[in-house]
Amino acid sequence: MPCLNLSTNVKLEGVDTSAILSEATSTVAKLVGKPEAYVMIVLKGSVPMSFGGTEQPTAYGELVSIGGLNPDVNKKLSAAISNILETKLNVPKSRFFLKFCDTKSSNFGWNGSTF
């Protein structure tokens, strides 16, 4: 159910993306309170992006979930995901935005239907 879509201007060649995907999956599952089996992580690199007028390493993310999000959880997710991006991709925490979207089950398709 939770889907974290991350885009960055950092090139991912030579980067252990499996480690990023694994850590992000377990982090989202734990903090949102959903099984890892339902967590999706999308990581796109080399995306043309600028932040504050520069093309230094930056990232943008959107996390959509059916429930499990609230101000406290969102703050923890923001800290955890920005830490992953900083340690694994050298994206400073100050150059990352994360948008949270809590949606109804009828707005989330899966397995040829909705939840």
From TrEMBL:
SUPFAM superfamilies, per database record: Tautomerase/MIF
Which GO cellular component terms, listed alphabetically, does the Swiss-Prot or TrEMBL entry include?
A: extracellular space
Task: Name the InterPro entries on file.
Answer: Macrophage_inhib_fac, Tautomerase/MIF_sf
One GO term in the molecular function aspect is: phenylpyruvate tautomerase activity
What family does the Swiss-Prot or TrEMBL record give for this protein?
Belongs to the MIF family.
In Swiss-Prot or TrEMBL terms, this protein is called Macrophage migration inhibitory factor homolog
Please give the organism: Coffea arabica (Arabian coffee)
